[in-house]
Amino acid sequence: MPLEDVLAHVREREKTLTVYAPTDDLVSAVRERFATRNLTVDYVPCSDDEPGRIELIDGGARRESLPLSALEPLVDDHEGDTGTDPDPAYTALLDHVDATTLTLDDPRQRRHARREVEDRAWRRSSGRLVAGFQSAAAFDDRRDTYRVLGDALDVHVYVAGPAPEPLDGVDVHSLDDADVTDYRFVAYDGGGDETKKSAFLAETGVDGHRECACVLTYEPELVDDVFDALGVPNRAPP
User: Fold this and answer.
1) Count of CB atoms situated within 10 Å of the CB of 171
2) Among 32, 78, 132, 145, which one has the highest count of C-beta atoms within 10 angstroms of its own C-beta?
3) Can you identify the CATH homologous superfamily of domain 102-230?
4) Exposed, middle or buried by CB within 10 Å (0-12, 13-18, 19+), for 226?
5) What is the torsional sign of CA 142, 147, 148, 153?
6) ∠ at Cα 79 (74, 84), nearest 5°?
7) Cβ of 120: how many Cβ atoms within 10 Å?
8) 64, 96 contact by CB (below 8 A)
9) pLDDT for 10-27, tens place per residue?
10) How far is residue 234 from each of residues 1, 100, 175, 199, 224, measured CA to CA in Å?
11) Would you say which domain of life the source belongs to (predicted)?
């Protein structure tokens, strides 16, 4: 499965949350709360006489229909009050909204996400890390980081175009494959712990710099798909 298919698989799993209400007062809060989730929020007006509701659609099928009260904690100033039990409808909503795969639009979020994967690998200090860069210069900007990572991990770096200078402890590969030229990525195999697996994957724009679709995932199967796309086993040798 190429990296293109990994992103396509994430898109196919996007859910739709439709808010049926007399006004769209809640919609902005819902969109802000779930901005990084793989979720589209739509609004459909209804009359004051109709009971408001929300519907969650997954893969074209309705997964859940809940009362508008499920959204109240999103605008309630006391959402974090531990003295009250959460609304069961709100809890049911969160249960259906995927928190293991996040879609990122903000450039700062994307930089943080990429470095979060690197940091998770560094803190565990075992396992295998793979990363892709669009040029030798881009890799050189992160060379010091990868020198440290290479001291404790099995690190493979893929660079588009001419090869950068070698780096001790890091296997550097120069490729013009679309999986390297068209995508930025960092994936960590968890060092034997499924719960530590993570991957950042971003499709670059036509100029090779602007990022389009971008995801951060902690879902083991998707992380494995990134390793499979590169033809690298997702388990470092002992």
Assistant:
1) 14
2) 132
3) Endonuclease Chain A (3.30.870.10)
4) buried
5) positive
6) 135
7) 19
8) yes
9) 877 778 889 999 998 888
10) 14, 19, 20, 12, 6
11) Archaea
Q: Report the alpha-carbon distance of residue 198 to residue 190 in Å, rounded.
A: 7
pLDDT at 192 over 70: yes
Distances (CA, A) of 21 to 39, 58, 124, 131: 19, 21, 47, 45
Say what the pLDDT of residue 175 is.
80
Provide the terminal-to-terminal Cα distance of the chain, rounded to the nearest Å: 26
- The least confident of 14-23, 25-34, 54-63, 178-187 is 54-63
Q: Provide the pLDDT for residue 179.
A: 73
pLDDT at position 82 is: 45
Q: At what angle do helices 3-12 and 220-230 cross, to 10 degrees?
A: 150
3-state secondary structure 120-185: HHHHHCCCEEEEEECCHHHHHCCHHHHHHHHHHCEEEEEEECCCCCCECCEEEEEECCHHHHCEEE
Six token digits for residue 60: 């074209």
Q: Stretch 87-106: mean pLDDT, rounded?
A: 74
Topology (CATH) of 3-99 = Glutaredoxin (3.40.30)
Q: Does pLDDT of 155 surpass 50? A: yes
Q: Name the band, by pLDDT with cuts 50, 70 and 90, for residue 102.
A: confident
Q: For the chain, which residues make up each domain, given as ranges?
A: 3-99, 102-230
